[in-house]
Amino acid sequence: MEDQAYVYIMASARNGTLYLGSAVNLPKRVWEHRNGVVEGFTKKYGCKLLVWYELVGSW
């Protein structure tokens, strides 16, 4: 079975900081951003709002 890959954008607020990422398991990754599980840019700047995503293919 091939995994699907997604590209997504998270934001801190309207007209706020943006973060561009990629993931195979998008729901899990968004949950990690919203709950501050992983230290890094999105936790530091509070990017918790999923504003866009797109399926970009499989591998």
Tell me about this structure.
This protein is an alpha+beta fold. The chain has one domain. A hairpin with a 6-residue loop joins strand 1 (4-11) and strand 2 (18-23). 25% of the residues lie in helices and 41% in strands. The radius of gyration is 12 Å and the shape is globular. Strands 2-1-3 form a 3-stranded antiparallel β-sheet, with helices on one face. The mean pLDDT is 93.
- Topology as H/E string? EEHHE
Radius of gyration from the CA trace? 12 Å
- Give the termini separation: 9 Å
With helices defined by DSSP (H or I, 4 residues minimum), what is the helix count?
2
Q: What is the spatial order of strands in the main beta sheet?
A: 2-1-3
Question: Structural class of the helices, strands and pairings?
Answer: alpha+beta
User: How much strand?
Assistant: 35-45%
Number of extended strands: 3
Compute the average pLDDT. Answer: 93
Point out poorly predicted stretches: none
- Global shape: globular
* Number of domain units: 1
What's the main sheet like?
3 strands, antiparallel
Fraction of residues in helix: 25-40%
InterPro entries: GIY-YIG_endonuc, GIY-YIG_endonuc_sf, UPF0213_domain
Family: Belongs to the UPF0213 family.
Protein name: GIY-YIG domain-containing protein
Domain GIY-YIG: 3-59
List keywords for this structure.
59 residues, alpha+beta, three-stranded antiparallel β-sheet, 2 helices, 25% helix, UPF0213_domain, GIY-YIG domain-containing protein
Explain the layout of strands and helices.
Layout (H helix, E strand, L loop, with lengths): L3 E8 L6 E6 L2 H10 L5 H5 L3 E10 L1
Antiparallel strand pairs: 1-2, 1-3
